[in-house]
Structures are given as structure tokens and as C-alpha cells.
């Protein structure tokens, strides 16, 4: 069994990005600039945003953060987005989700200029992903693809089973694994809450991607020996022994599943660090106009 | 075994659309208008376009056809599209595919105003389909969903296997069958040319959708007894006994597969007629601004 070290891969890619940024600056170019919009003071959102700001520093990006109180009106938020769309110095920006209930999240996403939509949530980027055109790929699925690429895991013709059908992970990772590309070109099955016998499906998986957000849902008897297991789950569970009072738990019962796998991602330190580095990668693509000229 | 009579279902839906058009006219509204752009004189394209014009008549739509020679420049074609985008009388329009090689097909598709893109090929409509938002659904997958709905075929939690991953059938039908909706909510597998043992996958299908364009590819030993089989194939094969010299052949070996099925679509008369009526349905949605206000 080989552990997929997302922390290490993310660091490698961050360094590569930082070098490219140095070259851009040396050639008289502009420093890539990622902006973030944070509404309210949710602990999870604050910590994600802090990690993104830190990653920007490591990559040599300019970052800026626009904060709104949780009672911000949708109109004001749309004005912020419009200003970012029109700011020539901002190459890409993200609006940290989830948003408060009085805000129409989809409306906000669709207000973002697709050319600056480095989260890849705008329907144009989602559609281009499906069609197989250049686009900003949603960060978590893009990060998983980078891991498969880094470890040169053979995906062609393999049976990839995705558990979960969310718009930000399950659907786009299924789409990417299906494309005629490397990595990709897999036979892809998506199962979910309405699937009567998920274990019967997951046991067929050469590559199993768990993205349902239920801690330790995937047990050893659901995994085929020799499978590649990618754990996207990051549920916070109480842990009095941790200084923060909680820790992250994946969707896979790692201790029991790991010995059976050819490859497996741990939680934390697997997919998580890749998600942020994917966002950095998208920002560099935006700054260098590689997706939309 | 019950035969899924696409011709009958299409006629029923066409009548329903025609009634709605009568009501619109009676209320002083505008007659829905579908325009088509036809480049060159390919036999298949000519006949598809003729069927669409006929369906418009049956639904009470205005139809118009803009013809270009096969050596039309991309610039001229883009001008035609721009004119249709800006023509307030045109509710929706289609550009018959395939286009000659010197034309960038994707560029043409993306030039169509998504609000008039009744073929549902623009990335915005593809993306909205994936996200689960209101959109113009690609006609063939939408037609299949109408058939499943008409025959009240239970899809929830069923294993739906799609053979083929084209942008206009395989991917969007997989997306639709996956959505938390009725019909839909199925466990979905997509297999394709890189799948090593397609039969091992198709034999698990409660619902099998064949959309690969290989005549009689699906043989009886590839089908689970009691399965629902949807045949999207329409390959022209030579037939000297036919007055046209050819006939349509599906992807399924109908004679041998049909006796094992709970439901099956014939070719012709199954999915084919539904594709055109889906386009009419989309045009009505466009005319009544039900997708994009």
C-alpha cells in the first residue's frame, strides 16, 4: 500500500507555480492577484480563507480579502462582484461558500465573470468541463486529477466509482474521469443516497472516490483488494485531545481500508491540500490568460 | 415485453404543444418561431431539417430556414447567428450539425445566444443541466426522459448503464439520470470505447441506454432479463429492398434482445421521433420565456 501524500504533492506544485511567478515578474509581468470575498465569520470559512491567503503568499501571488457582515444585502454583494469583475488588477476571485440564507448563492455564482471564476462554479465553466473544453476546473476534482497524475496511476479503462453527486465534487470528478484524456478514460459509476446497495457497486471499483461527507462510511468490506482509494471527506468531529477540540475525519475507515489498497489518500493530508493548490493553479491560468484569451 | 412507442408519445406531446400554441394565439400572443441554419446539402442534414420544419407546422410554430452553401465563410455564418440572436421574432434557432471542416463548430455553438439555444449545446445550457438548473436540454436525452416519464418507468435507485460518452447524448443522458428528480435519481454508469469488458457492465443494467452508433452492438447476452432498453442508434445501413436504398439500424440487436426486456424502444419509431418533439418543446419554452426570463 502506498500513501498518497497530498501535502507533499501540493508543496511541489506550489513551488512550480512560485517559480513561474518569478519568471513572469522577471520578464516585467504583473504579479497574479487572487481576491476573496468572505461573508460573515463562520469558523470553517475563516480558516479556509486563511489557508488560501497563505497559499497565495507561498506562490508569490497578491491576495486581497473583501469582508462583508453576514447581514450584507444581495445587492451590495453583487456590487462587490461587479467591481471585482471590472478591476483589471484582479485576475481571479472566489466567493467563499456557503453564503447566508437570504442570499441566492446561484445568482452570486452566475454574476462572476467566467474568465475570473477560478473556483470553476459558473455554468460556463461547468459546461465546458463536461464538453471537454479548456476551463477553470472546480478545485477539489482538479486536485484529485493532479494526484492521479503525480503518482502515475493508470486510469484508462479502469472502473472508477464515485460515491456522492454534489455539484462541486461528485459530478465534476465523474466528468473528468470519463473524458478521453490522461488521467481519465475510465468507466465511471456514480452512486449516491438513492442507490440501494452502495457496497455492491464500490466493491467493483478499481478507483474509489468517496465524496459523500459521512465519516468512515466506506468500510473494508466495501473495497476491492488492490483498489485506489481517494477520500474527499473532511467532516469535523469532536476530539477533546486536539487543541482545537475537533479533528477532520474522512469518508473512509482508513485504518481498516488502507492495508487492502494499492494507493490511498489520508485525511488530513490527502485531497485537502490539493484543493487549495488547484485554486492557485487556476489563478495562474487566469493571470496568464491560458483558458480565456 | 412492452414496446416503447416513440411515434405515439411524440404525437401526443406535439398535440399538447399545438394546443398550448392555440391558447397563446387566442390570448393575443405571438406564434413561436423556430429558425434553422443549414450549411451545404448533406442528405442526412436535409432530411433532419425537413422533419423539423414539418414538426413546426404540426405544432403551429412559424419556421424559417436560412441556407448557406458549404463553402460559406465562418465570418458570414457568425453574422447569420448574430442576426438571429438579435431578431426579436425568432424565439429559438438551431444550426444543423455537422458543419464543414473549415468551420469551427464549437465557435459557432458558443456564438448562439443561450436564451435561443434550443438544441441545448451552448456551454451555459450544458453547465446548467449538470448543476440541475432550468435549461434547454439537449433534444435526444430530453426525449428519452419524456419516454421514461410517459411509461412511468421507475428509475429511482435503478442501475442505469449508458454506452457511449458523446457530448450530445451519452454525457447529458448520464447527467439527467443522475439528478435528484423523477425520472432520474438512478445509479449511473457510463462505459465507452476504452471500457475493457462492456458486456460485464451492461449485464448489470436495470436501464440500458445504447448510444454508441454501432449497429446491433448490444446482443442478447449483454442484457439482464427484465431490463429497460433504450436504443439511441440510428446508423444508415444499405438495404436494396428499401425504396431509399438504406434503412436505419439501431445499436441493439432488437430481434434477439426484445423478448428479454421489460421495455424496449424500436429503431425507427423509438427515440428518433422524440428528439424532434423535444426540440419543439424547447422552442415553446423559449417562446414563453420559461427558462430565461
Written overview of the protein:
Two copies of one chain form a homodimer. Chain A has helices spanning 6-26, 43-59, 74-86, 105-111, 123-131, 139-150, 170-178, 198-202, 254-257, 271-287; strands at 2-3, 33-39, 62-68, 92-95, 159-163, 187-191, 207-210, 228-231, 235-238, 246-249, 263-264. The first copy, chain A, folds into two domains: 28-113, Leucine Dehydrogenase, chain A, domain 1 (Rossmann fold, 3-Layer(aba) Sandwich), CATH 3.40.50; 139-272, 3-Layer(aba) Sandwich (Rossmann fold). The model of chain A has no long low-confidence stretch (mean pLDDT 97). Chain A has ten helices and eleven strands. In chain A, helix 2 (43-59) crosses helix 10 (271-287), helix 6 (139-150) crosses helix 7 (170-178) and helix 6 crosses helix 10 (271-287). With 293 residues, chain A is α/β, with parallel strands linked by helices. In chain A, helix 2 links the parallel strand 2 and strand 3 (62-68). At the A-B interface, helix 5, helix 7 and strand 6 of A face helix 5, helix 7 and strand 6 of B. Strand 6 of chain A pairs antiparallel with strand 6 (187-191) of chain B.
Query: What oligomeric state do the depicted chains represent?
Result: homodimer
What is the H-and-E element order of chain A? EHEHEHEHHHEHEHEEEEHEH
What is the C-alpha radius of gyration of chain A, as a whole number of Å?
19 Å
- The overall average pLDDT of chain A, rounded, is 97
Give a count of the beta strands of chain A, DSSP E runs of length 2 or more: 11
Secondary structure: helix percent of chain A: 25-40%
Measured by DSSP, the beta-strand proportion of chain A falls in: 15-25%
Q: Which regions of chain A contain 5 or more consecutive residues with pLDDT less than 50?
A: none
CATH domain topology of the largest domain in chain A: Rossmann fold
Strand line-up across the major sheet of chain A: 1-11-8-7-5-6
Span between N and C termini of chain A?
43 Å
Q: How many domains would you count in the coordinates of chain A?
A: 2
Assigned CATH architecture of the largest domain in chain A: 3-Layer(aba) Sandwich
- The CATH H-level superfamily of the largest domain in chain A is NAD(P)-binding Rossmann-like Domain
CATH class identity of the largest domain in chain A: Alpha Beta
Q: Which chains share the greatest interface?
A: A-B, 34 and 34 residues
Number of helices of chain A: 10
